[in-house]
Structure formats: structure tokens, C-alpha cells
């Protein structure tokens, strides 16, 4: 009975405390009174009688003696991340210097940090507990990867009173290299960004500090460490193999993420250690940001993102209480589907009286793109009055949206939106505001490509580099809110941030970088975190390559460059349902009828032809065709006359061929044609077409306007079957066999003008 109880008790104990650690601990440890109680327990040793262990009164001895001390004069995003990780593991943290002006130098380059030592010294003077263990650590670029218990265990195992983090690079004084003791394995040099030790020893170590705030703390500690006598008396060692501290500078190749049981840690692959603290010292801020997207349990394979719904802010119920947002629409160059862009902007779910719209149209109004510019003007004219404010900013005016917001105390956010962004999610703005982050972009990608509007990493010279998780994020295998070094095309940034950290009026200027990169560079330098979210699907971005603006409806030609947007704009809404919902009709034998074009497609094609205007005379002599003679002539314009034949073939291949092959099984079309054209029927020009065979294997005949509305009469009659289609539907295609069976005629148009698009496929 008695024995069973003890065993049970012990197993509880060992679940709480890593006894393996104790077993490595020499029994000698813990002689001094200042030894924390963890060693007292461990000193029981494997051989001793555990039943007697008096320390059981304190189940986690030592933990309460650990105090994390850090200096943070400002509550930066990095500091908040540090606190979050500390809270996650229940570290007790004391923050020094809050609200003070930082005098310790530029953390990116020059030595400095003396202010930290001065503040630490003052704080420790107030503390008396000899058992107190202090972890003094930077915070803007530091994350805890594990809990205090593991940290204390490893501290014990280091068998010294003070343990410093180590570095492979010596800094700031290379001349001290020879004075550093050699280590058998691991880093040889001291890093002052993190150390841990007993209060009395640390007090002794910094007792002589009289330096200026801008003096180097690293140099100060290095001098003590490299002095053999002081090293011995204070009892200092280095954590050479990164068991406690991982400094990333000089060690980027050594550190990988380790996913394990719903937790994420950093693993040092060189020393095979799992550091408890990860520090993005020196020029490794981006790497700590990357690791901070995962560590300690921010994102895991098991649970996805654990923090993405933290700190959300909800938008007020009433429209008039919504934050005021300045929307900056950037137009760098003529861009496809600009009218669709503005339609979406109108549909964006947000009270319009809380939006101020600034349209930066950088397009020079040369004659050949005048018609394109009309789309922008039309939006301003037709809908401008819906918004709180709307302004068209001309190319000469140097007014960026951040500056405008900065000067306007009422401006809560800037929502920057490039015109090539296809924002499919009309809640985007709300979602971004609710996420409550300093700067955040919705992830958008180029359809079917790995291109997106964020970078996961930067190359050494500040350009694009691919992070290890980039593809997984773009392809939404990892979903979350990601701290990244660069976003573009569409993002939200807070007005208060623009009036504080980002108050430099030259946010976009740089001698070498383009404005987007300059902006992000600036944001990074200020320690402001940039996020991209793929928690929702937001949309995509258009390709602006090869966009010609010489035509009336330039978007018609985008079937190759932007096929998804082309389909949305021009292919009938119900086209994709044709097979599933059996939308295909058969009005006459072997004649199939199905929806193909949107109204817009029909209108654009007709307008484009009328704009071109070179209708054929309708005579038998036709220089456009092989042989120069047309037996059954129509008044028409060929697709190749408007250079639309390649695009037309693509249309036939993509959208007609699948239906042909379904309806005429066993026949595989190549979608080749000699003749594809738009025909115009008019009572006083050419009202009808006499019976004929088509020079095709099959023919496609698409009605481009609406009977009863645009014209009267019309239709098509198949003589062999005495069967007519007399009420053609706009956008619907008739498909029928060509030269053999389907002898047919065009029925007379009695009023108005009728247009059809005809293709003789596989002649
Ligand atoms: C931190 O403390 C809270 C309660 O104080 C507890 O619920 C939680 O499990 C602790 N977390 C860790 C990692 O020890
Ligand atoms: C440092 O302290 C430990 C006890 O914590 C002791 O075993 C060791 O000898 C000391 N080292 C030096 C160099 O004094
Ligand atoms: C502090 O200064 C005193 C007096 O110069 C010296 O004896 C002692 O070693 C110094 N301590 C440290 C840790 O530098
Ligand atoms: C698509 O089909 C649905 C139902 O079949 C119909 O209500 C809708 O009007 C159709 N869309 C168009 C553009 O014709
Ligand atoms: C053709 O059909 C029409 C009615 O649709 C009918 O009036 C006519 O008699 C038919 N002609 C022949 C030759 O069958």
C-alpha cells in the first residue's frame, strides 16, 4: 500500500519535472545558499532516497525566482511579439525604460546599448533576493521558444553563475579576438543581447558601469569576460552551442523550424540543440520575423494559425461611426478591364460617406489612349457624388495618399489599391480593418502563377527572394496572417502610424529603389511590421503586359493575357452549366443552341466592327477570300480585318470545341477556319441571305443583338427539315453541320439592324 502510494507520487513528480536533467546534474551542485531550489531537488541525485525530499512543498522550485528583465523605451511591434511569447509561457517580465527616449544608438549599426546597462544596474540595486535569477534580454527582436522550466534546466546544466549568449562573429572590437578563451565546440564570442545569472553575480558584473548611454554594452561585457580573473570570480560562461540562446547573426544557415506535436521551435542543426530564446540580432530582423510567424505556436500544421483571431476589432454598427478611409487608386498605365475595376470599387462593402477617394491617374492623355481614359472619367462623373470626397490627381501633382492622410487628422486609414488588382472579395476593406494590425495586405495572386503581392524574404541587395514557406502560403496550404518584408498593390495602413512612425514625407522616395520598395524599406527600418493575410480569398492581379490601347474595346483582345478576367467579362454566366444543367437545346435536327457570350461581349464586338467600319459591299467579287469570288455574299467584316483572328480561334478552341465534341461524338475539331466574320443585316442594305451550304464541317452562328429590341424579323431556316430558329437569343450560339445536310437561309430582317458572328469551322 505504502509503496504503491510513493510510486504514484513519484510519477507525478517526474511528469512535472524533467528528472533526466537532474540525473545529469552532479550531486555537488547546490551547496551555496543562493542556489535555486531546482538544484536542491536535483541534488537528491538518482541514488538518494526520494521519499525524503523535503522540497516537495514547492512543486516547481526555482521557477518563481526567475525574472525576465528587458529594456524597451518604445512599444514596438517587435516588443509586443516578445511579450506575447513571454505570456504564452508564463514568464514574469519586468520592462525597464518604458517611455524614455532611447539613447543607446542605432540598433542596426553603431555600437550602443549603454543605456540598457545603466537601467539594469539601477533596477537591480532595488533587488535583494540572493536566489533571484535574472534573464536580461533584448526584446524588439527576441522570441521565447520554450518555457521557464526548460530554460532553468539548461541554465543549471551550464554549471555557471552567469551564462551569456554566444556569437560566431566578434563585435564590436575584433582586436579582442585572441583574448577569448577557446571553446571545444560552438561559438567563441560573447553576445550581450541575452544573458542569465544569479542576481549577486550580475550585480557584481555591472557594478563598475559608468559608461555613456551610447557606449557599447557588448564591449563592456566582452572586456569582463575576456579578463580571466573576472570571468572566474563572477563565474561566467558562454552558451556556445545555443542551448539557451540562439543569436541569428552569422548563424542563419544553422537554424531551421522544427514542427512537433502542435508546437514549433527553432532547431540549431549544427549543434543539434533547441534554443529556448531566439534573437534576431544585427541584420537578421527579417529572419526573426519569419521565425516569429511560427514560434512558439503561432502557426502549426495541426491547428493552423492560433493568433489570427486575437485582437480583432469590430466595426461599429452605424455607418457614420465607421473609420474614415482614404482610398488611393493608382493607375500607372492603361490597364485591362478598368470599367470592371470601378464596378467592383462601387460594390466594396463600406459606407461610401466614410470613404475619400483619390484617383492617381498617371496615364498621359495621348490621343491613342483617350478612349481608355474615358472609362476613368465616366466613373468620376457618374459615381463621384456617392463618396465623402473624390479627387482625380493629375500626373504632375505630387500628392501621395499617405501624405494626404497624415495632414488630415480625421483620416483613420489609407487603403492603397492599384488598378490592376481584381478585388473579388467585397468585404476586403472590412476584413483588413478588423484584423487590427499596423499595416496589412490581402494576399492576391496572378491567376495560375506563383506571383503574388508579397515577398516572403529579401535578397542581400533588398530585392525579391523566396522564403521556404512562400509557395505554401501562395497556394493556401498554409493559411494565416504573415509578417513579411514586402507587400504591394493593395494594402491598408493606419493613419496614426502615418502621423507617428511613418511621418517622413519622403516615404516613397529613394535614389535606387522604386516607390513600392522604397516604401516597404522605410516601414521595415522603422520596425513597423507588415503583414499579408490569406485567411480569406481576396482576388487576383491582372497582367498589364502586351496591353494595346489602340482599339475601341481593347479588353476583347485579353483572352491570352488575362484569360480568367476575359472569361468573366465575356463568356456567358451560364456557359459553365451547359453540360451539367442540360442547357443545350436542339431547335432543329442536329442544330445545337447554347449560351456563349455575355451581353457585353456582343456589344463590344458589334461596336468594334462598326468602329472599324469597312463593311464589305456584298458583291460576289471579294478580294479578302481565296479565289476572290463569293457565291453567297453578305455585308460583313472578317475577324482578321480587326486582327482578331488569333483570339477568335482561341475562343473556338476553349469554349466551342468542348461542346462540338460532346454533341457530335467522335469528331475532333481543330477549330480551324478560313472565314469568321460579323454579318450585318438591314432592311435597306441586305435583309436576308438566300439558301446555301456553308464551306465548313460545322458552323457557329452567334446572335449579337436582341430581336424585338434591336431589330424585327431575322432568324435562320434549315430547308431540308423545314425548321426555323426565328427568335435568336442574344449571346447564344447556333451550331450546325456545314456543307452536306444543313442547307439553310437567312430570314429577312424587317426593321432595325441585326448582327451575327459566323464561323465556318474546319473548312
Ligand atoms: C500559464 O498559466 C496559466 C494560468 O496562470 C495556465 O493556465 C497555463 O497553462 C500556463 N501556461 C504554461 C505554458 O505553463
Ligand atoms: C562556477 O560555479 C560552479 C558552481 O555553480 C562551480 O562548480 C565552478 O567551479 C565555478 N567555476 C569557476 C570557473 O569558478
Ligand atoms: C570594479 O572595479 C574594481 C576597482 O577598480 C575592481 O577591483 C573590480 O575588479 C571591478 N569589477 C569588475 C567586475 O569589473
Ligand atoms: C442563367 O440561368 C439561370 C437559371 O437557369 C437564369 O435564371 C439566369 O437568368 C441565367 N443567366 C443569364 C445571364 O441568362
Ligand atoms: C413548313 O412548315 C410550316 C410551318 O412551320 C408549314 O406551314 C409549311 O407547310 C411547311 N412546309 C413544308 C414543305 O412542309
UniProtKB/TrEMBL annotation:
Lineage, top ranks: Eukaryota, Metazoa, Chordata, Craniata, Vertebrata
PROSITE patterns (UniProt xref): FE2OG_OXY, LYS_HYDROXYLASE
Sequence ranges assigned to domain Fe2OG dioxygenase in this UniProt record: 672-763
Topology of this chain in the membrane: Peripheral membrane protein
Protein species of origin: Salarias fasciatus (Jewelled blenny)
Cofactor(s) the record lists: Fe(2+); L-ascorbate
Signal peptide: 1-22
Underlying gene: plod1a
Subcellular location: Rough endoplasmic reticulum membrane
Keyword entries, A-Z: Dioxygenase, Endoplasmic reticulum, Glycoprotein, Iron, Membrane, Metal-binding, Oxidoreductase, Signal, Vitamin C
Coarse class of the protein's main subcellular location: endoplasmic reticulum
SMART domains: P4Hc
Alphabetical list of PANTHER family matching this protein: PROCOLLAGEN-LYSINE,2-OXOGLUTARATE 5-DIOXYGENASE 1, PROCOLLAGEN-LYSINE,2-OXOGLUTARATE 5-DIOXYGENASE/GLYCOSYLTRANSFERASE 25 FAMILY MEMBER
Catalytic activity: L-lysyl-[collagen] + 2-oxoglutarate + O2 = (5R)-5-hydroxy-L-lysyl-[collagen] + succinate + CO2
Domain of life of the organism encoding this protein: Eukaryota
Molecular function GO terms recorded: iron ion binding; L-ascorbic acid binding; procollagen-lysine 5-dioxygenase activity
Name by which UniProt lists this protein: Procollagen-lysine,2-oxoglutarate 5-dioxygenase 1
GO cellular component terms given for this protein: rough endoplasmic reticulum membrane
EC number: 1.14.11.4
Enzyme type, top EC level: oxidoreductase
Positions of the UniProt region annotated as Disordered: 28-56
